[in-house]
Amino acid sequence: MGYPTGDRSLVPLRGQVYQWLFSKKHQDKIKNIYGRVRRCASQEGNALWYLLILGLADERTDELAHRLIKWQWPDGGWNCDKNPEAINSSFHESLIPLLGLSLYAELTGNKEAKKTARKASEIFLKRNMFKRQKDGKIISNDFITFHYPCYWHYDMLFGLKVMAEAGFIKDKRCKEALDLLESKRLPDGGFPAEKKYFRVTGIKTTGRSLVDWGVTSKKKMNEFVTVDALYVLREARRLKL
């Protein structure tokens, strides 16, 4: 959100993240079952992205990118489902690694990361960002409901924003999702946060936030959702002011 790059006061926080992601305890949880690494790759993907965007990347950041490339499933994404019969990648676990790897490829010129990001984009594009391949039905109502922030959860606007940042927003398979996005524009020109995953509280609990991310209502504009939606529409050459 426009935070200046290279803030060295964040280095101790970077160290905490590395200590977690490269710890033996963390790595012992990474399981390879039937040839697929079962990993919540949104965690490594998030770390990769924000270390790059904040200008705090180093050689350990390269290792995060390498791990994501190595863990990619045959269909292009990632999944932490330890059920041996699970063979499809997860929307939730694949979007953020795609975001991180596309930025990594852009900044470093790494061809393998670019190839991995391109393959990961197909997870979403071949499903028109929110539909099942087999019958064209909506995968989940939460996928077409706008939230802010999404954290690790997938929704269509978050998906379109990643497509825009990764350079895939002009793919014709984004059209239906872009049409649906435009249909949700409010009379005042803004866009709503229809549901939320957080609650503002001082109690340490699941879904806790110390920040109020704006109004949640299908009829009222949320500033954060609106900024994301307008960015997506601009990148898709659909912005009508």
* Gap from first CA to last CA: 22 Å
Largest sheet: 2 strands, antiparallel
Q: What is the average per-residue confidence, as pLDDT, rounded to a whole number?
A: 96
**Strands of the largest sheet, in order across it?**
1-2
The portion of residues assigned to helices is 40-55%
Low-confidence stretches: none
Helix and strand string, N-terminal first? Answer: HHEEHHHHHHEEH
Task: Count every beta strand, where a strand is a DSSP E run of 2 or more residues.
Answer: 4
Structural class: mainly alpha
* Shape estimate: globular
Number of helices: 9
Number of discrete domains: 2
Strand proportion: under 5%
Outline:
The protein is mostly helical and 241 residues long. It has helices at residues 11-21, 24-28, 41-53, 59-71, 91-108, 111-125, 156-166, 175-183, 223-235; strands at residues 31-33, 36-38, 199-200, 208-209. Helix 3 packs antiparallel against helix 4 (59-71) and helix 5 packs parallel to helix 7 (156-166).
